[in-house]
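> call design_seq(struct)
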């Protein structure tokens, strides 16, 4: 298990907390497939992860726009950075099928980014979009 639910800070917005819980579940399932080096499963769950991340980010961004949140552009910028990293990794995966690279990304980059993003951006945003 890459991320335990208790590691993720709760924010003052139930929708955002639900999005985070769903993402942790998918990321953990993906990480398990990567550890098992199950290429077919990684292919399948990679698509699911990218779709889930997009729903997560798009939902938060819509909430921020609806609330006319003043830091929407900066928060979205952090989302866009991770969108690009995931897209680039997925493109490399389709060519190289390298579980080791994906494992490194999940354990070193994604996990720390996810926790930091929630504790900083989502915690500050949540009370303003409720």
């Amino acid at each position: 298990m890459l991320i335990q639910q208790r590691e993720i800070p709760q924010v003052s917005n139930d929708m955002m907390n639900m999005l985070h819980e769903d993402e942790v579940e998918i990321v953990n399932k993906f990480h398990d497939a990567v550890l098992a080096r199950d290429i077919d499963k990684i292919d399948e769950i990679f698509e699911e992860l990218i779709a889930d991340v997009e729903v997560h980010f798009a939902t938060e961004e819509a909430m921020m726009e609806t609330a006319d949140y003043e830091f929407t552009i900066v928060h979205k910028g952090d989302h866009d950075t991770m969108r690009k990293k995931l897209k680039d990794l997925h493109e490399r995966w389709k060519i190289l099928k390298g579980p080791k690279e994906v494992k490194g990304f999940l354990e070193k980059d994604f996990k720390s980014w996810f926790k930091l993003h929630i504790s900083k951006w989502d915690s500050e945003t949540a009370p303003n979009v409720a």
